[in-house]
Amino acid sequence: MDKHKKRLLCYYAVVIAFAGIILLVGTLIVRQLQNRPVQRLLRPESGQESREEKLVADDGEKKMPVTVSVAARELTEKELEELFQAAQKELEQGLKGKNETLSCVRMPLHMPVIAQDGRILVSWSSDHPEYLSYDGTLGENIPQNGVDIQLEASMECQGQVRWYHKTVTVCPAEDEDGLSKALMAADEVKTGKYYELPASLDGRKLYWYRRGTNPVPLLAAAILVIGLFLPLRRQEEKLRQKKKYQEALLQEYPVLVSQITLYLGAGMSLPQAFSCMAQSPKKGGATILQKECALLVREMERGIPQGEAIQRFGDRSGLWEYRSFCGMLLQNRKKGNAELLYMLQNEAEKAFAERQRRARITGNEAGTKLLMPMMLMLVVVLMLVLFPAVVSFYA
């Protein structure tokens, strides 16, 4: 088994172990929290919805699951009066809506059905609903001189009602087991901050515990899935980069063969030819081929034999064209340049012919990809041509 597979197996083992530890420790913590006795529940604030708590009552003989509905905290008389005053001020400030003043109302009024974040219910009435309805919209046939309308809003909270009156001038627009009973008996005082749970039932002491779902397995499963698929994502990215690298090298292959042939024909040796390839000026920085040639030259300068360096150059590319080219160089470097130059010239002609063939294939693929946009453009042109004819026919 190679080192890559060993590292991958070790990674998977660590991910599985980590997910297992999260599952075990998280489950223990959640169970510990759920097994902690509770004797009172925090009420929702006034105006909020009731909250259901899933509990288990234990009297020492049996455990009784029950769902408790915790109602919102009721306000005291002082708090209620302050709330009504704040609601009246809120209605007063927001009533005119987009109108500049209530002495000349030309746009709909803002007449909400709730106030103070839903803690107070508001009901509106108008003595002239034909001109101004209960929802603030203006009617038709409003007198030119305007009409005074008496608005009345009833504000209700906790069974108590307060009234708000306002006069506006509308102008025409310019344009079973006894546990439930025990819970009800324990919840008589609704002004307290907490929902007190009964401490006993029929003389037996009660212990209350929270019921709920355990989110830890879902978290552990998410960590496990992400950890298992992360290496696949990285491997896919490596394959994509390698494919892009090979496509760039394949595009430069005719350049490599033609320039090596030129340099060898000028009397240079193979190391000198590859050195010239690495130092060739290129706008926008060195190409992938120039970088590979520079790496080949550095390997030979560090003492790696010429044949081995050329062989490694072909293996790094992963392309049979480069391996064949490097094999040609290795087989003929002892025979002199005469026969090698002839073979390189033939290889250069084949490389350029192959490059033209790939260019034609790429062009055909591009034409196929452009077929759908061209069809859409044709439909648009037909619509532009036919639309005037259809309009003139029906006209």
Description of the molecule:
The protein has 395 residues and is of the alpha+beta class. Helices cover 54% and strands 16% of the residues. It has ten helices and eleven strands. The protein has helices at 3-34, 77-94, 179-186, 216-265, 270-278, 288-301, 306-317, 320-332, 337-369, 371-394, and strands at residues 40-42, 51-58, 63-70, 114-115, 120-126, 147-157, 160-170, 194-196, 200-201, 204-205, 207-211. A four-stranded antiparallel β-sheet has the order 4-5-6-7. The protein has a three-stranded antiparallel β-sheet with strand order 3-2-11, with helices on one face. Helix 6 (288-301) runs antiparallel to helix 7 (306-317) and helix 8 runs antiparallel to helix 9.
What's the SSE blueprint?
Elements: H1 3-34, E1 40-42, E2 51-58, E3 63-70, H2 77-94, E4 114-115, E5 120-126, E6 147-157, E7 160-170, H3 179-186, E8 194-196, E9 200-201, E10 204-205, E11 207-211, H4 216-265, H5 270-278, H6 288-301, H7 306-317, H8 320-332, H9 337-369, H10 371-394
Descriptors:
alpha+beta, four-stranded antiparallel β-sheet, single chain, 395 residues, elongated
